[in-house]
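Mods, move this if it's the wrong board.
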Amino acid sequence: MADIKNWPAATKEYVNELKLEMRRVSWPNRKQVESTTAVVIFSVFAFAGYFALVDGALRWGIQHLLSFFTK
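Not the wrong board. Structure tokens:
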């Protein structure tokens, strides 16, 4: 029951601490955001291509292996 009575004060304290902490954050500038976004997008496409190749190779190998043993 005591926790319910302290909820508004605890919430207010949390919000105040959150505001204080957000003032300490060092935010990246636009150039940094653009360059890191480009790296992430390139990486996603590179990994997608790599996994597509690996998936195709494994699928081809398993199909040939199964067809060899099911003849």
